[in-house]
Each structure stands twice: as C-alpha cells, then as structure tokens.
Amino acid sequence: MKIRIGNGYDIHKLVEGRDLILGGIKIPHHLGLLGHSDADALTHAIMDAMLGALSLGDIGHYFPPTDAKWAGANSLKLLEEVNQLIQSHGWQIGNIDSVIIAQRPKLKAHLKSMRDCLAEVLGIELDQVSIKATTNEKLDAVGREEGIAVYAVVLLTK
Ligand code: MG
User: Fold this and answer.
1) What predicted TM-score, i.e. pTM, was given to this entire model?
2) Which domain holds residue 35?
C-alpha cells in the first residue's frame, strides 16, 4: 500500500451579517466568516491537505476567488470535486485530522455534526474524520475573535 500525507491551513475573518459555516454545518453565532465562497475554513483546509498530499496545488488554483462562478459557493460541492480528483488519480482518504482555532463560539457541541457531514460527503467512515476545537487563549487576532483558523492533515492511501 502506498501512502501520501498533506497538510492544509485556512483562516477567515469574522464579520457581522454572514453565516458561520464550518464543516458544512451552520453554527448559531452573531458573527460569520467572510469570504468569496461560504468561507467554510474547515472544509477549505481539508481540501488543501488533500491536494497537497498529491502535489496538485491548492484550492485557489481550482476555485479562484476572482471567478464569479464560486461566489457564495457551498464548499461541500468543492470538496466533492476535490475528492473526485484524488480518486481519479487512484487515491482514497485514509484519515483526516483537523483542529479549529476559535475563541468563540464554543464548537464542542457541533463537532459530531461536522464529522457526520464531511464523512458523508467524502464517502468515508465517521472514525476517519477527526475534528478538534481549541481557543487561542485570547492571544492574537483569533484570540480577539477577529477570525477563525483551521489546520488539517490528511493521509491518502492507494
Ligand atoms: Mg478559505
């Protein structure tokens, strides 16, 4: 069996008047993430890790923010496309591990829904999708609730 590993990172600003969507789940909060698409930073970081594992570039290459086609895009649709791309190269996901860094809101109660959603979209088992959440201990921009950042690692197998 061959294995490849990739890492991904994303950060989006928290602003008023936007939905907060992470892992395809809309989370109740008075602020949401700003971006060209739905700004689902978790899904974006996972896609970048999947692409990185195969040296296929990054999501900006496939879904450029300058392209009106992706305005307000549901990131789960982009994730499906990236999954099809890695499968077309003969690879499948071994496992995903990710960490969301958010000072607020508390995300613990939503992690299982996000895992369910991403596992279903990717066609993998729940135990292949790990999502953790932490605060930034009130340090820096994320700690001041100016944004939410995500790190993800994905292992691919063939
Ligand atoms: Mg992004």
Assistant:
1) 0.97
2) 3-157
